[in-house]
Every structure is written in structure tokens, then in C-alpha cells.
Amino acid sequence: MLYFRGCTAREKQTNIQEATEFLLNKAGIDYYILDDEKCCGSVLLRTGFESEAKEQIKINSEIFKGKKILTSCAGCYKTLKEDYEGVDVIHISQLLNELIKKGKLDFGKKDLNVTYHDSCHLGRHLNVFDEPRDVIVTVANLVEMENIRENSLCCGAGGGVKSAYPEIADEMARSRISQAIETGCKILVTSCPFCKLNLENDDLEVLDLTEFLVLYGGLDES
Length: 222
Hints:
The chain has eleven helices and seven strands. The chain has helices spanning about 5-10, 15-25, 40-45, 50-65, 75-80, 90-100, 130-135, 160-165, 165-180, 195-200, 210-215; strands spanning about 1-5, 70, 90, 115, 140, 185-190, 205-210. The chain has a four-stranded parallel beta sheet. A three-stranded parallel beta sheet has the order 1-2-3.
């Protein structure tokens, strides 16, 4: 299995990569990473650079041919699934759910309340709603926000908004953070590095699903 980390987990949110690899190792998954990993082309596609994105997709497609791809990033997952041809791709939330059901990962359930944010790419775009929730409830109690699943609020980071209109992205994030705080939870979990990056704040512990499992799942660190 090729673990395609994605730009954000590889460069800005390296704890996500570390947590993912820790879990893969714990489950005995045979995987590797690319030392010279390039962008999947998602950002180019979402910001109108279609010709450049197609060139990047062409280059990556040769590398991905015949391989099973695992992604940390919801944006990478959507791009590889919809904009590449013949790529066998799975998101980390889906793989973790499979591994738990097969007994390859076993977490200790705690009396802990957490809430979950559906990313746009993973959720309403690709209908991956249940898998991350099924993973969370093996460790903690899930307390839902007002807007969830298909009606989830965008975090504000995607589609180039964070780069072009940072004040709008920040306002959108504040709205979502307010909903999370209203649940009474101190931990907000998401399955998208972009969302994690934009939702980080001083009032909540914001974690990627993999980070949450490593920190609160009760796994032996050895």
C-alpha cells in the first residue's frame, strides 16, 4: 500500500503523518511512502489551473498505476477518486474502520465526549459520513453539532478561500467552532488536514482522527 500523505500532512501538519504511520504499524500494515511525493493536483483544480492540474495528474498516474493508495487528506481522496482514472484509493477513516472491525486495532473506550466535523470533500462530496463516526465511538462518546453530515458547515479552508480571502475563511471557522463549543465538548475531531488547520483555536483541542486515536485510544506507544 502506498501512503500518499498529501501536502498539508507532509509539510504543515506532520503530526498527522506520524499518527497515521503509528497506527499502520500497530495494525501490521505493509506500506511505503514516496520520498519525492508531489501534490495530487487538488488545489490546482479547485482554483482554476486546470491545464497545470492535468499535467500533475498525468505524472502521478504513472506512479500510482497498479497500487493501492491510502490518503490522509479528504481533498486528495476526492481528487484521486474522481479526477484520476483507475486509481484504487481509500481514505484513512475508511481503513481504520475496517481494521477495527477485523480486530487489528483495539481501542479502550473512555467516558469522554467529543464532537466531529464533516469536511466538505469527504462528507457531502463523497458521502463518507459513517466511517469516521464508527471509529470515534470505539474510543469516546460522540456529541453531534447542530449542522452535521450533508448539512455540515464548511470550515472555510478549501477551494482557495483561505489563500484568497483569509478573513472570510476565519469567519467561517469561527462559526463552526461556536457550534462545537455549544456541544460542551473540549475536543473537536475531523478527518481533513485542511479543516484541522483552519479550525485550530484556543478554546478547543482540534485533532485529526488519527491523532485522536493515538492520544486517547489507549494504545501502547511501544
